[in-house]
Amino acid sequence: MSEPMRPRASLRTAVVWEVLKDALDQRVKASGRDVLDVLDTGGGTGKFAVPVARLGHRVTVVDPSPNALFGLERRTAEAGVADRVKGVQGDVHGLFDVVERGGYDVVLCHGVLEYVDDPAEDLRNAAAALRESGTLSLLVACVGGAVLARALAGHFTEARQALTDPDGRWGAGDPMPRRFTAEQLTELVGGAGLEVGPVHGVRIFADLVPGALVDTEPGAVEALLKLEEAAAELPAFHSVATQLHVLGEKRG
Fold it and tell me: Are 141 and 180 in contact (CB under 8 A)?
């Protein structure tokens, strides 16, 4: 019998999840506690909150969308982790109106800074939610990946626009309000008072490879995932990734 094919959608989160899972394990060892308090800002329907809760941790999801929080409630119930996940309506700008300052071992800020008015200020809020020695997981859209994608699609003027635009946007129709470079990402983390960890490129190849090349061949998705993981920490590939991920550590 042939090996079952891994869902291609897993490529969108696999690299980040492996880094995050290792960070959670390290925090468990360092704290001496089996159960961590995790805050997921802009966590939506629980793409990361549910797997974190499955590891046994308590997760608070802050999101401005009532619909997303309703989806979170349904998703956690289906996964059997509703008792470990709490949804709260709010956003990272007014974070301490709804959650405790300095109350979390790990804070996730995934796909948030692209949409806020002041990324530096809001990232400082996320960092302030950490306990001493806590870990911030930051995931943002990357400028270079958008430039490459537009160029490969034949939209050369838009590619050049994204390359030169201060916010990394390719035009008025671009649905992404802001993108970042690896240098901007690490500056933001350092500016929030955190020790900057390794940067990881996310979806370096996955968004460029035609689906027909991987969807029909057993093992192809797994092979592509291994390639993504191998290239993720190599600086040479950060400039063409769709997203960038970095961990920040709060030191006393």
Answer: yes
Residues 217-249: pLDDT tens digits? 778 888 999 999 999 999 999 999 999 999 999
Q: Cβ atoms within 10 A of the Cβ of 46, count?
A: 26
Best CA proximity match to 76, nearest among 108, 42, 49: 49
Number of Cβ within a 10 Å radius of residue 60: 22
Q: Residue 181: CB partners within 8 Å, gap ≥ 6? A: 142, 143, 144, 168, 239
Q: Is residue 115 within 8 Å of residue 178, measured between CB atoms? A: yes
Are the C-beta atoms of residues 109 and 91 closer than 8 Å to each other? Answer: no
- Residue 128: what residue type? A
* Residue 192 CA, distance from chain mean position: 17
pTM over 0.90: yes
Q: Please answer whether residues 17 and 51 qualify as being in contact, where contact means their C-beta atoms are separated by less than 8 angstroms.
A: yes
Q: What DSSP line would sit under 15-84, residue for residue?
A: HHHHHHHHHHHHHHHHHT-SS-EEEEET-TTTTTHHHHHHTT-EEEEEES-HHHHHHHHHHHHHHT-GGG
3 by DSSP, 3-state: which? coil
Residue 57: both structure tokens together: 């941790």
Q: How far is Cα 108 from Cα 57, in angstroms, rounded to an integer?
A: 13
Which whole-number Å values give the CA distances from 91 to 7, 18, 47, in the listed order? 31, 26, 17
Q: Give the separation between CA 129 and CA 245, rounded to whole angstroms.
A: 19
